[in-house]
Amino acid sequence: MVAGGLVIALPKRGLMHRRIGYVYVISMLLTNSSAFLIYHLFGRFGPFHALAIFSTITIAGGFVPALFRKKVKNWLHWHYYFMNWSVVGLYAAFWAELTTRTLPMGRFWMLVLIATAITTGLGSFFIRKHAKRLTGA
Could you tell me which InterPro entries the record lists for this protein (predicted)? Predict the structure, then answer.
């Protein structure tokens, strides 16, 4: 979460951005991989496994274009949107987990949906707000 926040908040297109980005990508790949070791919630493949797959897709969607930027048309556009949505997803999962563990309402899925909706709404606003400035599009 720290690396995701830093890579979003700090200046782009530099060595520091790249290094923190690598830390973020590796951390997220390890986190998503570890999600597949958890089966005690549903006893089988569950919604959190599907979200780990989706998260891995967003990581790949942002990392691969940056890695092959000379071969990918509009690589910065793809990198910007996929990586930002990856971080928003991470924070949505954090807020959903935090609210379900701290609020005594007993409505797990409702809390997950509310926390996710608020986080993705705010994320969408800021992604769009800064897109033109950061991608030039």
Answer: DUF2306_membrane
Residue 83 backbone phi and psi in degrees, to 5: -70, -40
State pTM to two decimals: 0.82
Instruction: Return the axis-axis angle of helices 15-35 and 47-67, rounded to nearest 10°.
Output: 150
The token pair at 72 is 């990918």
Q: Which of 38, 60, 58 is nearest to 49 (CA)?
A: 38
Per-residue pLDDT at 108: 75
Q: Within a 10 A sphere around the Cβ of 132, how many other Cβ atoms?
A: 9
| pLDDT (tens digit per residue) in 37-84 | 877 666 777 777 888 899 999 999 999 999 998 999 999 999 999 999
Q: How far apart are CA 88 and CA 40, in angstroms?
A: 26
Length of the chain: 137
Sorted by where each begins, the domain ranges of the chain are 2-135
